Amino acid sequence: MRRRIQAQGRLPSPPARMRLGATVEPFLVRTPGEAEKVWPLAETILSTHTIKHLAPTEQRFLLAAFRRNSTLAYRCLRWARWMTSNRKLEVICLKCRLTTAWSHTMVSGTSHIDQGKWRWVCPLVRLDPKGCGGRFCDTTNTPFCHVPLSPGLVFAALAYPSEVIQQLLQKNRQPVELRNLHTVLHGVETMADRKLRDRLTQYARLFCGTVLLGDCAELTRSFDGVEALEARLRSLHRSKPVAEEYAASAIRQRQASYTQLRKLASILQYIDKDSPSGQTSQRLDHRRELWVDLRDVVQTLCDPLNPAPIDLQALLAEASLPSP
Ligand SMILES: [Zn+2]
After folding, report:
1. By the 8 A CB rule, do 99 and 122 touch?
2. pLDDT score at 209
3. Ligand 1 centroid from CA 83, angstroms
4. CA gap 324, 312 in Å, rounded
5. From CA 20, how far away is CA 17, in angstroms rounded?
6. Cα of 267 to ligand 1 centre, how many Å?
7. Where do the structural domains in the chain lie, given as residue ranges?
8. What is the pLDDT of residues 52-80, one digit of tens each?
């Protein structure tokens, strides 16, 4: 708790790229329409021409960035499959197709590929209608299923002309990934569900934009559209459903800050009675830590640039959960 508060308090206004890449986006952009409205094409952020002329180490870095963002990629896949226009996930059971699966666990995969993949359960105990107890994953019945490939590479290949990513893999001697990517892309291309295919492409913008601006700052320095992107996010922020959720979240975050403030004030009140035993220097350190925490909480509450300090993990969980 302390570490989180300090991190937020000391960095009240992270650089725009960080906000766009990591913090603002998961909360504000949720539906495919929003992703398309806010995020530019990957090509605009880092052109294929530039990619082709990157140094080999930079190309490897780019591939690694797409690869390691499996959690975001699986979220994009979930959202492509089940996000509704009212910004809630509605996961219809793939087995009985009758009810909404609401419970999920992380797939405990053996490799980084499964990181962030969820397993859904169709509840047996539910009022009406009752579920079937069936289990399935984010990837079940999609071309991603049973192909050991980091889903981020697929989203990258959907956001760019796919040859660009394929050539990168080829140049970097990744024949297995190349073959698997070909398999998945062929599956996506021939999917009967055209709507899902379109939605995957829309979320590919979100995926690539987030990874490129958040993880590849060195490579995307020449992208000069950050202000435009922020303006689009702000205009989305003013739209009613987003504004309502944002306001509710801001209130929750402020409440959390007030609770923390009260807790710290109470500790400080009794600090001379209850200070930990030990060296004077340790006691002073303890005092200093408390003081920094207190200052950070106050700063979080006062900072007009940062009205809703965002706990990324909590928001991700909240953003991806269906309402019970
Ligand atoms: Zn079911």
Report:
1. yes
2. 92
3. 18
4. 21
5. 5
6. 50
7. 32-223, 239-318
8. 999 999 999 999 999 999 999 999 999 99
Burial (0-12, 13-18, 19+ Cβ within 10 Å), 68:
middle
* pTM of model > 0.70: yes
CA of 129 from ligand 1 middle (Å) equals: 10
Instruction: Find the 324 Cα to ligand 1 centroid distance in Å.
Output: 16
| Cα-to-centroid distance, 270 and ligand 1 (Å) | 55
C-alpha of residue 100 to centroid of ligand 1, in Å = 8
Quickly count: other Cβ atoms within 10 Å of residue 134's Cβ. Answer: 18
CA of 147 to the centre of ligand 1 (A): 24
CA nearest to 32, candidates 155, 159, 203 = 203
Predicted confidence (pLDDT) per residue in 185-230, tens digit: 999 999 999 999 999 999 999 999 999 988 898 999 889 888 888 8
Nearest to 155 by CA among 207, 211, 220: 207
Bridge partners (DSSP) of residue 120 are 104, 136
Distance (Å) from CA 241 to ligand 1 centroid = 30
Model pLDDT, residue 305:
40
Question: 59: CA distance to ligand 1 center in Å?
Answer: 43
CA of 199 to the centre of ligand 1 (A): 24
Distance CA 202, CA 155 (A): 10
Specify whether the CB–CB gap between 23 and 312 falls below 8 A: yes
Residue 169 has a CB neighbour count (10 Å cut-off) of 21
Q: Tell me the CA–centroid distance for residue 74 and ligand 1, in Å.
A: 21
Cα gap 263→294, rounded to integer Å: 10
